[in-house]
Design a protein that fits this description.
201 residues; mainly alpha; two-stranded antiparallel ribbon; 9 helices; 2 strands; globular
């Protein structure tokens, strides 16, 4: 909640903090509620004094971010008129996955996917947006997501050449997907605990 009060992007992590608990059906909502409560409390005094001005330059910033570099990967397959809808749909799907898969002992695994997906979908030209992703990639042991951070530097260097930015993020996304498929196949063929592997394996 404190992080979101400084920069709104951490709000995307909330689905990763709604873990299953107990019998596998009940969920823990304390962290999301505390985060939203902290954000609302920190902004309440400013909202009372400044009203709508509390948004500051946010509307102008969003307008600037709507330029040629916006959602570069999605724009390769989606018309610009549908980009906003495509962004919401993509992040909504990832959020549903995060809520369904998060376990209390390891929220970082869903968190790295949530934040990394946000960067892949929006393709920002500012590499410092990737700093939380670097931390989450290390915490979760999913180092393939570091490629998305590198793509942020490529996008920054090629701000005036939007296709380069899109290709950089697309390549990083391909690496993430490839490693995820490899890891899933490896886990599927790994002998169960206590089960002896066949001779020759």
């Amino acid at each position: 909640g404190a992080a979101a009060a400084v920069k709104l992007t951490p709000l995307v992590l909330l689905p990763a903090f709604i873990p299953l608990r107990g019998n596998g059906v009940r969920r823990s909502w304390q962290v999301p509620l505390a985060a939203v409560g902290t954000l609302a409390t920190s902004y309440a005094p400013h909202l009372l004094v400044a009203g709508g001005l509390v948004l500051g330059y946010l509307p102008g910033y969003l307008s600037e971010e709507g330029g040629a570099n916006r959602a570069g990967v999605l724009h390769l397959v989606v018309p610009r008129s549908l980009l906003t809808l495509a962004i919401l749909a993509a992040m909504g799907a990832v959020a549903v996955w995060a809520v369904r898969s998060t376990r209390a002992e390891a929220p970082q695994h869903a968190a790295v996917v949530m934040f990394g997906s946000l960067l892949l979908v929006t393709t920002p030209s500012y590499p410092w947006y990737s700093l939380p992703l670097v931390a989450l990639a290390v915490m979760s042991g999913r180092l393939e997501w570091l490629g998305v951070a590198v793509a942020g530097y490529v996008a920054y260097a090629a701000t005036r050449v939007p296709p380069v930015s899109a290709v950089g993020y697309a390549a990083a996304g391909a690496v993430v997907i490839s490693v995820a498929v490899w890891r899933r196949r490896r886990a599927r063929h790994r002998p169960l605990a206590g089960q002896r592997a066949p001779v020759g394996h």
